[in-house]
Amino acid sequence: MFKDTNVAETEISSRYPEPTPEGTWVEKLKSLCNIINAGNRDQVDLLQYYYFLGEYLEETNGISENEENLRQEIPGKKGKFALKTASHTYQLYQAL
């Protein structure tokens, strides 16, 4: 069922997080959505950007206008997924 893995051989990322995008709230949102939409990042990078997006939504108190802007930047199911993932990622890391 599970692949036999030697924990000592498991590679752990030692990359430093990229800085959060700068600018106004709208510019930050557009920048984060463009990065998430591009799909050319690995999972570690994407998780970081989902965290930043969750942080942005939390700092703006989840204002429905911001959520609507997110849905315009990332339409359809992918936007709903991004909203949920960002919120959960931010909450998870805040609980640590």
List the helices and strands and how they pair.
Elements: H1 25-38, H2 43-59, H3 64-73, H4 76-95
Helix pairs in contact: 1-2, 1-3, 2-4, 3-4
Characterization of the model:
- With 96 residues, this protein is mostly helical.
- The protein has one domain (22-95).
- 64% of the residues lie in helices and 0% in strands.
- It contains 4 helices and no strands.
- The chain has helices spanning 25-38, 43-59, 64-73, 76-95.
- The two termini are 30 Å apart.
- The mean pLDDT is 80.
- Residues 1-20 are annotated as: Disordered.
Question: Helix tally?
Answer: 4
User: What's the β-strand tally?
Assistant: 0
Q: Helix fraction?
A: 55-70%
Q: Which structural class best describes the helix and strand composition? A: mainly alpha
Largest sheet: none
First CA to last CA: what distance? 30 Å
Q: What is the percentage of strand-forming residues?
A: under 5%
Give me the Rg, rounded.
15 Å
Task: Note the run of SSEs as H and E.
Answer: HHHH
Low-confidence stretches: none
State mean pLDDT (0 to 100 scale).
80
Q: What is the count of structural domains?
A: 1
Q: Characterize the overall form.
A: globular
